[in-house]
Design a protein that fits this description.
This protein is an alpha/beta fold and 201 residues long. It is 34% helix and 21% strand. Strand 8 and strand 9 form a beta hairpin.
Length: 201
């Protein structure tokens, strides 16, 4: 499975402090991560590459050397646990590129993380979770489980209510819609929420 840099960014952000990012997109896709040392990222086009660095300058130099390569570099900036003064001065504004013409072909993030191997494992876990969801969907479809069950599994994975609606605005299937406040639901017990429908149109 391939995952977009935006999706991975959102997952990484749940656990790590973000220092800077460049080139994130929901339209790109990257394969499982590698821990990249001694220019190993040069051998991993199309993959997520976890790269430990000791400064933003080091991260910038590495990224500048691979502007055109399609990789998602996750720079793990090692910070001195006994001195947070440097960490407080990190700014996304001065990290990597700001000018559009200098944007790289891939995507790049820099996070505060002293253990690059732990970051690698966390990103692997994201891929594992997505693989499990995909396998569940394939099994459900192969077993003719129905739209309702597919939406139920997907809503649990995404953490959002889901709904499938016909072109005539009829409800075909939904999952976890009860988690929404009643005024935010398109379909109420007594029929369509006309105010919500008008807002959609």
């Amino acid at each position: 499975m391939k995952l977009s840099s935006v999706w991975l960014y959102e997952m990484i952000l749940k656990k790590y402090r973000m220092i800077g990012h460049v080139g994130l997109s929901g339209r790109d896709s990257y394969l499982r991560p590698y821990l990249c040392l001694d220019a190993d990222y040069n051998k991993r086009p199309g993959h997520v590459c976890v790269v430990p660095v000791t400064s933003e300058r080091e991260a910038t130099d590495i990224a500048n050397a691979y502007l055109a390569d399609k990789m998602f570099l996750v720079f793990c900036l090692i910070e001195n646990a006994n001195d947070n003064s440097e960490a407080e001065n990190h700014s996304a504004d001065n990290f990597l590129w700001t000018a559009e013409e200098n944007r790289p072909g891939g995507a790049y993030v820099c996070i505060a993380a002293n253990d690059a191997a732990a970051v690698l494992n966390d990103i692997q876990a994201v891929f594992d979770l997505c693989d499990e969801w995909e396998d569940s969907i394939i099994s459900l479809l192969a077993g003719d489980a129905g739209m309702e069950k597919v939406l139920e599994v997907s809503a649990g994975f995404l953490g959002n209510p889901l709904m499938v609606m016909g072109t005539d605005f009829s409800l075909i299937a939904d999952a976890d819609m009860e988690k929404l406040p009643e005024r935010a639901r398109l379909f109420a017990e007594d029929g369509v929420n006309v105010e919500y429908m008008n807002a959609l149109l």
